[in-house]
Inverse folding.
């Protein structure tokens, strides 16, 4: 497989994950509005996603040096810490949805994460702060008309969403720097196991709320299998083949999908400024796609 094909497939995996997560935001809002607590939904999401990942792991050909016993303590800690960050990311995101609905927490979480990833990557020497990267970040974070005053009660939702952005950035960096000899499905299975255990510890003290009715069970199953197992596996595979900043920017399709579906299904109409923001996000993704091509240089 040549470098161009590999990069195209990597972008495909990241974009697929972002699209699935964007649709999952609307399913999460439906379930939370139906009475399921955010921490219970997070637990269900990871617990239901685990069987598929472990089944794929056990069916995959064994890779030399990729077993748990073969990993160093640092590599094991990296996989488990990435899983814990995954749990915190989803929990904060769901908490933001409680206050703000599906679209805005998704936009805040995903659009602020590239700033965090870029700063960490530059400080650690993983990436250079080139001109295209600066332009892309300016397109992402520059408000079209200013933020304006927040409505009462929105501050908590914004705070949870920013917490989700920080944790999401840690997930991106953890996946991008995962040991190359460990298959993506193996790293995802171990990471999601850690995420499920973290959420079990959080959800048990306050009590677990269960779905009621076929629609809620179907929604919970969708979030577990499609937006967790399938989406995180696609993202983990693609993130290894892209730079951390490119990987996190690729998932900017998530807020676009969430905003469009929110407008279509929940009558959360997009304002002209939001449409302008969507175009800015699309432009930033195109910049990063060009930057990731092997023939390009900063």
């Amino acid at each position: 497989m040549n470098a161009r094909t590999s990069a195209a497939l990597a972008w495909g995996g990241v974009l697929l994950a972002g699209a699935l997560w964007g649709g999952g935001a609307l399913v999460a809002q439906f379930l939370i509005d139906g009475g399921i607590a955010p921490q219970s939904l997070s637990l269900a999401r990871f617990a239901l996603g685990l069987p598929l990942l472990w089944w794929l792991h056990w069916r995959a050909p064994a890779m030399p040096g990729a077993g748990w016993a073969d990993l160093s303590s640092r590599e094991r800690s990296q996989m488990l810490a990435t899983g814990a960050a995954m749990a915190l990311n989803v929990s904060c995101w769901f908490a933001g949805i409680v206050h703000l609905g599906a679209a805005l927490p998704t936009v805040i979480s995903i659009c602020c994460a590239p700033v965090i990833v870029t700063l960490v990557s530059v400080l650690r020497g993983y990436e250079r702060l080139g001109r295209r990267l600066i332009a892309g970040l300016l397109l992402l974070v520059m408000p079209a008309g200013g933020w304006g005053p927040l409505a009462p009660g929105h501050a908590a939702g914004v705070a949870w969403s920013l917490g989700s952005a920080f944790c999401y950035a840690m997930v991106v960096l953890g996946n991008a720097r995962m040991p190359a000899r460990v298959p993506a499905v193996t790293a995802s299975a171990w990471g999601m196991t850690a995420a499920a255990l973290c959420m079990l510890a959080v959800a048990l003290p306050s009590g677990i709320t269960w779905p009621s009715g076929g629609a809620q069970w179907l929604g919970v199953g969708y979030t577990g299998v499609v937006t967790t197992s399938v989406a995180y596996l696609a993202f983990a595979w693609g993130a290894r083949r892209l730079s951390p900043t490119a990987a996190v920017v690729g998932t900017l399709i998530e807020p676009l999908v969430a905003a469009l579906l929110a407008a279509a299904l929940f009558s959360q109409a997009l304002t002209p400024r939001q449409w302008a923001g969507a175009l800015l996000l699309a432009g930033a993704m195109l910049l990063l796609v060009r930057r990731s091509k092997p023939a390009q240089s900063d």
